[in-house]
Each structure stands twice: as structure tokens, then as C-alpha cells.
Amino acid sequence: MNSLIQKYNIPGPRYTSYPTVPYWDNETFSKEKWIDTFKRSFIESNSSEGISLYIHLPFCESLCTFCACHKHITKRHEMENPYIETVLKEWQLYVDLVDETPIIKEIHLGGGTPTFFSEKQLKRLIDGIFINAEKHPDHEFSFEGHPNNTTKEHLQTLYNLGFTRVSFGVQDYNPKVQEAIHRVQPFENVEKVHNWAKEIGYTSISHDLVFGLPFQTKENVIYTINKTKELEPDRISFYSYAHVPWVKGVGQRGFNEDDLPKNEEKRELYEIGKELFAEMGYVEIGMDHFALPTDSLYKATKEKTLHRNFMGYTANKTQLMVGLGMSSISDSWYGFAQNVKTVKEYERIVNEGEIPVFRGHILSEEDLIIRKHILNIMCHFSTSWEEEQLQIKNVEAHIGKLEEMIDDGLVSIKGKKLTVPEKARPYVRNICMAFDKKLHEKQPETKLFSMTI
């Protein structure tokens, strides 16, 4: 297994989209084309499955040096009010494009630090969204909570607004690791907010853990997971630390690359975690996720309805996801569009009455077919091209790129069906790369992606 890790641990996408962002065709993209795909998708999906909203709340009071998200570091809480106003104006720009009232099935508040905002501002945001929208009967609303600044009032206010899922960023409980990533938060802080959420009535509480952090050891991971066991969250995300310091604005400069566990050492941390989670009764879901059998993510896996988009894995598939806020990415199924990446520019463009999109991609028919296959592999560890609508041009070329992985026992192909055996799940990104036509047509000349394993 170690030789396979050395062989396949290469830079590769995480496939929250296909095509991946570096391969979007920005030259033929336009805001008008994006709006056309938005309208098409809204008509097709709003009255049946509803739509999703991702709202990016970018402010953080300090920089966590492991984080690769787009954020704005500030202690100026007076920035909350104009930012919320702008998000609501952006939402109104989308509402004005359609004739029906939007029916919202899913909302996720991400960041940054959503709980940087006061509970009053968050209530104003959600109430403002629903002035011109309705809740889907099976809605699921979620947010990311920072254990150091999430208050009981935050949790109660959002629960009263329909939020039933919360994820707390834990990362690791070792003080040396926490200091290196500039995210010092004792177990007691996590325990407090977790128990508040449980007491209030949240039906899905998730803890986000990360392996591969600077100075992290087997003992750290075992300790962190054993502490997590004491609280028994409904879901656990066990992310591989993505070291991408070359990405502008990321800020992953607080430690030396030599301080990071690599290759076999890093993979061992995941295997230890996976084994401990299984002993605790968690089931592995897709890539990086574990859930108790009572959680909706597990049920979606069993019912083959698990979906993956820019929010990660979700139990609620919607064809249309609208991203609001600085740097947010929208997905109409037929197209992707990303908002501008600074607060100042975002607020300026929206206040001029324009949707603040600056780049995107309109999917071709071939893109759509490849996207389905990659989604199938990422969510269900299998795909098939038996049906006409899933038949790829030059399928032999894609399968040919899997020959080594077939020889290494990482992929099984019978007839027109591909299956990923359980032991090969760590290599799922590599397997998807075989279908990634854009990647093969133009290999990157500079660093674009984190390592796959």
C-alpha cells in the first residue's frame, strides 16, 4: 500500500465541480449566458425540488493559517451591517429575474466565520431572504460555527429560523498544532457549544477534523478522536489538509513545509481515524465524511441520493444552487459563476444594480456527461455508461487511462460499469482524473491543486 501511495499521491482536484475552476472557459462565458442558465434551471427545478442558497460570510477576527477559504480579516464589526444589506440586494437581483416565488430547500452559511456576525444580523439576513421566498417542506438549513465565538443566542436564533444542522471547526485538540495553525480552542469550548446545540434541538451536529496539519502525530489524532467520541457528533468531516500556499490570499505561511506529515505518514493518520470512527459506529460517506446511521447523510448514501457541490457532500440534491456574497460560486447545473473576491468590489458592483459575477463556465453536452460520471464516482464509488445519456465519446480513451489502476486493484470494470473497491477509496480523486478531459487536454504548467492522498 505504501508504494501505491507514493505512486498516486500527485496534485489533483477535489471535484466539487466539473470542469474544475482552473479549466473554466472564461473567454466564452458571459454574465448574460449565466443568467440564461439560471432562469432555465429555476424553471425546471423550483416547483419540484426547490433551490439551494450558499451565503458566504467572509469576516474573521484572526487568520487561521491552515485555511484556504476566501476571507476578510478584521475586528471591525460595523462592517456587518453594509455587508448584510448587500447580500440581500444581490438576492433581490436574482428574484427579479424570475416570475415564481423561489422555494428554498437548502441554506448553508459558510465563511470566513459566520458567527462573527451578531445573532441580530443573522436574523435580519434570513428574514430578508424570505421576504421574497418560501421554505420547502423538507428544507435543511445549516451553518458553520466557530467554537470560540458561537453563543447560545446564535444557536437559538438560527434554530428558530429553521436551522437544524451546525458544523463546528475543531481541527485538532493538541496545543502545539493549534498554535501552529493559529486556531487555539480548548476542548471545553467545543463541548459547551456542542451541548448547547443538542439541548436546543439541532438534529445534526458535525465536527470538522483535519489530518496532515503541522506537527500532527498519530498520538494527536488518536487523542482528538477520543475526545470527539465523548461528544458523539452526528457527523464527522475528516479532511486532508490541503497545502496550497501559492494560492493568492490563502495565508498558509505560518509554518515550514517540513513540519507537515507527508505521504505514508499522512495517510496513516487517515487510516487510524477511519478505524477509530468505525469502532465508534460511524459509516464512511463518500470522501472525507463519516456519519452515524441516524444521520441524513447516511440515509442519502443508502438511498443513492447523496450529492456533491461547492458546499461539499449534501443529503439534499438541488439542481440550482445560488451563491450569495463575496467569492461565492453558483451552480445552475448547466453553468457555474463566481462572484468577485473582495468585499469592497462586491459591495460596489451590487450597489450599482449588477450581479457581481466575474468568471464562470457554461457546460457543453460533453461536460454534462463527464460531470455525471465524476459525481457518481465521488458519491457512490461507481458509474456506468450503459444508458445512452451517459455514453461518453471515446470512452476507450478514458478507460485506457485507468489501466494501471486496474492492474493495481484500485478499479474494477465489468462490461460498461466501473466500481471502486473499498480499499481503493483513498484514490478516488485519481480515478476521477481519468475522466477529466479538460485536465488531459491541458496539463497545468504551475501548481493548481493539493495532493490527492
TrEMBL record:
GO cellular component: cytoplasm
Cofactor note: Binds 1 [4Fe-4S] cluster. The cluster is coordinated with 3 cysteines and an exchangeable S-adenosyl-L-methionine.
Record-given protein name: Coproporphyrinogen-III oxidase
Sorted UniProt keywords: 4Fe-4S, Cytoplasm, Iron, Iron-sulfur, Metal-binding, Oxidoreductase, Porphyrin biosynthesis, S-adenosyl-L-methionine
GO biological process, one term: protoporphyrinogen IX biosynthetic process
Biological pathway: Porphyrin-containing compound metabolism; protoporphyrin-IX biosynthesis; protoporphyrinogen-IX from coproporphyrinogen-III (AdoMet route): step 1/1
Cell location: Cytoplasm
